Amino acid sequence: MYNEYLPIKAVIEKIVDESPDVKTFTLRPLDKNNCILKYKPGQFMMLSLAGFGEAPFTFASAPRDGVFEISVRKVGSLTGAIHKLKENDIVGIRGPYGNTFPIDKIKGKDLLFVGGGCGMAPLRPLIQHVFKNRKNYGRIEIVYGCRSPKDISYKDEIKTWQANSNTKVHLTVDEPDEDWTGACGVVCILFDKINLALNKTYVFLCGPGIMIKSAIKDILKLGFKENNIYASLERYMKCGIGKCGHCYIKGKYVCLDGPNFSYTKMRELGIDS
Amino acid sequence: MRLLFIAKEDLKILIKNLKRDCDEFISPKKEHLDDIIFTDTKIDGNELLDYEGNSVISPRAFLLPQTEELFKIESVKTCEFVSIIDKKKRIFFGVRPCDIKAIGLMNKFFFDEFIDLFYRERLNQSIFIVLACGRRCATGSFCHLMDTGPIARDSFDLQLIPISRGYLVETGSKKGRQILKNNIRLFAKGTTNDEKEMKDILRQFRKKAKQIDFRRLAKIIENNEVSESIWLDIGLRCVVCSGCVSLCPTCSCFSVVDRLNGDTGIRLRYCDGCPYAGFTRMAGGNIPEPQHKDHIRRFFEHKLNIDVKRYGVSSCVGCARCIQTCPGNINIHDFIRKITNHKSQIPNKSQIPNSNISNKYV
User: Fold this and answer.
1) Taking the model in full, what pTM does it have?
2) In this prediction, does ipTM exceed 0.90?
3) CA angle A29, A33, A36 (to 5 degrees)
4) 10 Å Cβ neighbour count for B311?
5) Cβ separation of B306 and A2 shorter than 8 Å?
6) Interchain contact, A50 vs B79, CB within 8 Å
7) Which among A210, A232, B8, B170 could disulfide-bond with B159, CB atoms 3.0 to 4.6 Å apart, if both were Cys?
8) Contact A106, A53 (CB under 8 A)
9) Sign of CA dihedral B266, B269, B270, B274
10) Is B307 helix (H, G, I), strand (E, B) or coil?
């Protein structure tokens, strides 16, 4: 008898301000044997705040000892309330839910990550996992676009990513400030700088719907294989376990069959254009 | 195997016996304006032993209530949550074959991958006694096309098939056989005449049109062969009252909300519906499916295409409640008939007789 809707307790261990509206929370489940800690990159969990409700958040860090991170952008009432939390406060969590990125398939391959805004969070567990086992993978390039330089999350970590061998991180912003020396514009403008083997590269995208669509279009134009493109999608969810019906798209539930879809699957679901 | 027989007087005794071992006896009852509703009649009696047509709301409302507590919030600050499970024993009496088919489909859905504890507990504590239909019901249903009536095939514990001198009885599960065993003196063997009468009922239902081929229907929708003008017309007619999804016996979408009173409270789930514009609205206000015509399309596609692929049968059971309630005259029967070129007759709303005609079967 297990009530799937009943969250377990987790304590907030650390809060990092990533940008004016994004905070990263380190959560430690009080029950350290709970299955939530056995999550894989790409999966998500439901975070509860009594009185404000519950919402899905992807894990934003690779699995490590007894804790995980989530990044939360302040957009609504629940996320607003989460932003007001302090260290050592208690929240409700349950999970892990959803499918994972195809971790087994990408061994020995080149990897391209395309993130927009807080869309970097779902990709981060996989990026961390890949860098932890760096020698198992080929060339890695990360394209990250944000509204403005101050919106760039994980700034210090990006520097450590860049320090890896055979790795390149491209950054771009829509609205540069005076100190910004990098590229300006949407993520797609950086695609001609990519130097990866077309037929053995896996592409992972996450960001606003409009960015995913236009980025996939340009990636396909470059000649990357349709089957090797994966996007992490976002939908409104109330249960995370395929019952509430909110995340339903053409017979698939984003919470069960996703949130990670290959481009081929996305086309079947009619969410490519 | 010959079916058993029970006389009307003996059925009354059976009901009396059954009421002793349950907390709620959910059965059809006549309300004002002669509406049939399912309600607990354990104490006041007045359950109908046979009735014309079907209930206004399907008995799924007792398995997936309009609002339901997921757990108690004992402390907001420390996230102290305690789950509450409904342990009431219920006997559902007089459920129509289309509605029991719907419950059978809901069972598949709620046991798929993650098990919904609340639904499972209710189901395990429930006994379903189906009352088969003696004639086409007055609500314009099309169960004979969807293969869900007039006699149920599965998902019931006990089935009563009305004939002129009483009821034929069929068991469908261990629970049903146990009821039979406990009350064996009330039952007799059915005669060949009784069975002939039953077969006549079936023939009466099925002679007019042949069943819908679900696979073909699903394929037509899958391959986008339904013209855009049909979807557009449906979208224009929908006034987003969500009557269809509220009455549909296989609709199960819900939303979740917290209700607080100081530092304590409850988390509730309540029935929700895909026609609402905000059904897919995400934090920040983005709606991935903004167009109104897509909402009813999603409802139709789910019932007639997706569930056929998933469970082998359509999850439209042909009860016609959505047709009856729709102020914009959206008609799923008409839709099915149109896209499959099916020859069945659609009763005009004005031709559907009043439901308070005599309660005689056959």
Assistant:
1) 0.88
2) no
3) 60
4) 15
5) no
6) yes
7) B170
8) no
9) positive
10) helix
